[in-house]
Amino acid sequence: LGMILAFLAKKEMRILMVGLDAAGKTTILYKLKLGEIVTIFPTIAFNVGTVEYKNISFAMWDVGGQDKIRPLWRHYFQNTQGLIFLVDSNDREREELMRMLAEDELRDAALLVFANKQDLPNAMNAAEITDKNWYIQATCATSGDGLYEGLDWLSNQLRNQK
Any idea which positions bind Mg(2+) (predicted)? Predict the structure, then answer.
C-alpha cells in the first residue's frame, strides 16, 4: 500500500526557465499555466507560476533574459531540478546556452531546450541547435506545439532521479 501511495503522491519539480530576451519564456509560462496567449512585456526580474501536468507540480521560474539581467541567473540555480533553456530558433547569432552548461551548480539538473519560434521561415531545427542529460524539443509558444512533449521528457527525468 505504501508503494501505491508513493506512486500516487504528487511530485514537485523546481524548473528554471531562462534564455535570451524575446525568446518566448513568459509566453510559454502563461500558455502552459493559463492555456492562452497574454500580452507580454519584457521581464525585468522574474515570473513564477505553477503548472500541473501528469501528477507533477512544476514550479516554473521564468527569469528575464536581457543582457544586464543574465549575470543574475546564477542566483536562481540552487535547488533547480530541471532547466528549460529557451532558444529563439530564428536568432542564429547568440550562444548563451554553452556558457550556462559550464556552470557547476547546474551539473545535476536535467536540461530541456525549447527550440522556439518554429513557425518562422528561417528557424533552425533541433538538430541544427545541438555528456549532458538534455533534450531539444521544437516548439511554438503561441500555438503550444511541442510544449507538453517537452514536459513529458522532464517528467520522465524526474521519475528516473528518484
Answer: 26, 43
How many of the other CB atoms lie within 10 Å of CB of 34? Answer: 11
Residues acting as catalytic residues: 66
pLDDT at 159: 79
More confident residue, 94 or 158: 158
Q: What is the mean pLDDT of residues 63-71?
A: 89
Binding residues: 19-26, 43, 65, 116-119
How far is Cα 59 from Cα 14, in angstroms, rounded to an integer?
5
Find the radius of gyration of the CA atoms of the chain: 15
35-49, 54-68, 93-107, range with the lowest pLDDT? 93-107
Which CATH code for domain 10-161?
3.40.50.300
Could you say which DSSP state residue 145 is in? B
Q: Can you say which residues are annotated as belonging to the binding site for GTP?
A: 19-26, 65, 116-119
